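BUG: 3D viewer hangs when loading the predicted structure for this chain

Environment: internal workstation, default settings.
Expected: structure renders.
Actual: progress bar stalls at 90%.

Input used:
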Amino acid sequence: MGQQRGEDRRDQVDDEVRKEIEKIIGQMECPKDFLCYRSGLKVLCKAREFGIEDYLECLEEGGGGCPFSIDFGDMHFCKCPLRYYLANNLKK
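Structure tokens produced before the viewer hung:
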């Protein structure tokens, strides 16, 4: 019974996360057709948090040719709202 409750909570969290992801997807266009989400979050560009709200540091070579990548000197920033959500809320 204890395990059942834990599974129910996990399903609820997963459902809340899924709803938030779908809300973000509904508010943006993605030239990659949301491959990150469609792959079950297995195909993600390399990025990491670095302390600036709404942006990640893009770790893809040359920004990966992504329209969400912003060049700044020798660094690239990611401004994809979905990628930012995944990094900040799911630590992916």
